[in-house]
Write a structure and sequence with these properties.
The chain is mainly β and 109 residues long. The chain has no helices and eight strands. The strands form two sheets. A five-stranded antiparallel β-sheet has the order 2-3-6-5-4, with no helix packed on it. Strands 1-8-7 form a three-stranded antiparallel β-sheet, with no helix packed on it. The two termini are 22 Å apart.
Length: 109
């Protein structure tokens, strides 16, 4: 998943989460995939948003999880078997945030 920012990359916190929930409300958000990753972008305003995005076989959906106290949550659904550990890498570039989720193929085998 690649996020691009006009004014440079915001701070971020990334962690596996299941089930995925809204940061402020704590309500569960339904997402496809057996495993999920939550990316929290910090120092954002309520004018920042992220649309629900259809993904690939390995990452079926990316969606806005809502704002709370200057943070915007982004949920990433991973189509990985539940017994496999969620392995990912975050790379920050000047105006890009890249989240690379390791997978063994295109969906389940």
């Amino acid at each position: 998943m690649l996020l691009e920012f006009r004014g440079g990359v915001l701070g971020c916190i990334t962690h596996p989460m299941g089930p995925v929930s809204h940061g402020g409300l704590g309500t569960e958000v339904e997402m496809p995939g057996d495993q999920h990753l939550k990316v929290v972008l910090v120092t954002v305003t309520d004018k920042n948003s992220f649309p629900v995005t259809e993904g690939t076989a390995a990452v079926p959906e990316v969606r806005d999880l809502g704002h709370f106290e200057g943070e915007l949550g982004v949920g990433v659904g991973g189509a990985l078997p539940a017994d496999e550990p969620l392995s990912y890498r975050v790379t920050v570039r000047e105006k890009q945030l890249l989240v690379d989720i390791a997978h063994t193929g295109h969906g389940r085998h």
